[in-house]
Write a structure and sequence with these properties.
The chain is an alpha/beta fold. It has helices at 13-16, 19-24, 54-67, 99-104, 117-127, 135-139, 143-148, and strands spanning 38-40, 74-77, 81-82, 85-86, 110-112, 130-131. Residues 1-41 are annotated as: Disordered.
């Protein structure tokens, strides 16, 4: 058993590694129905930071992988994103990177952070990352085609994210390219 890191007095990864087990509610994972994914935001999310999140998140990812080998995947957000905004490159410290998660998690984690086509290709080529697109996926129903053919992406409308009521607005009303 790995030693639980003590990088934060207010956060215990011991409880977090129990979440996948409790989310199963008696339904064992199968090859066609693995455990749900885990999303990791170790560096800056809603103004919550740790002096050094690597020990905590390394432990957490490692324990989830060890305890739940059928876990669907790990989704990590690059430190250049802070919630709904992008951080200035000059504000990102050199030690703020997800390489430590790439070392703990196999197969490769999904990495997201507002990638453009170019930065996604670079991440895949240089680090072997599986790149996830969120906001751009919503606003581009033909995202794969646009990326493959280097076509322009439609901008997303954040004001329509997570709103009650007319759920179609902002989710199903973006056009396909002809």
């Amino acid at each position: 058993m790995s030693r639980v890191p003590s990088s934060s007095a207010s956060y215990s990864p011991k409880a977090a590694v129990q979440i996948p087990k409790s989310s199963q509610q008696g339904t064992p994972p199968t090859p066609t129905s693995p455990l749900p994914p885990f999303r990791s935001l170790p560096f800056n999310f809603q103004d919550m930071t740790m002096a050094d999140p690597k020990p905590t998140f390394s432990y957490l990812a490692g324990e989830i992988k060890r305890r739940y080998p059928n876990f669907a995947y790990l989704h990590a957000v690059e430190p250049r994103v802070a919630g709904t905004t992008f951080r200035d490159e000059n504000d990102i410290r050199p030690q703020e990177e997800n390489d430590f998660l790439r070392e703990v998690w196999a197969p490769k984690p999904f990495i997201s952070a507002g990638h453009s086509r170019e930065t996604a290709i670079e991440a895949a080529d240089e680090k072997g990352d599986l790149v996830a697109f969120g906001r751009q996926f919503i606003s581009n129903p033909d995202l794969v085609r646009r990326l493959e053919q280097d076509l322009p992406l439609s901008p997303y409308d954040r004001a329509t994210f997570y709103i009650p009521g007319n759920a179609a607005k902002g989710y199903t009303d973006y056009p396909f390219l002809n």
